[in-house]
Design a protein that fits this description.
Elements lengths: L16 H37 L11
């Protein structure tokens, strides 16, 4: 018989400002290559869709 889960409530976190600022700088720097990787994945998926469904070179643009 599984035991009931115990709940934990976190009420106070004491993080020095310098360590918190350093953490956010690291997150910001890590977001730059992550953005390029996600953009590359979207580009590859778009290329596969164009390849499979045969979209033309300028088929997505509006012509007046």
């Amino acid at each position: 018989m599984p035991e009931p889960s115990s709940r934990t409530v976190l009420t106070d976190i004491d993080i020095p400002f310098g360590r918190l600022a350093a953490f956010f700088v690291k997150v910001a720097l890590a977001a730059i290559p992550a953005t390029f990787i996600v953009a590359l994945i979207f580009a590859v998926v778009g290329w596969i869709f164009r390849l499979v469904f045969g979209f033309g070179h300028m088929s997505g643009t509006m012509s007046w």
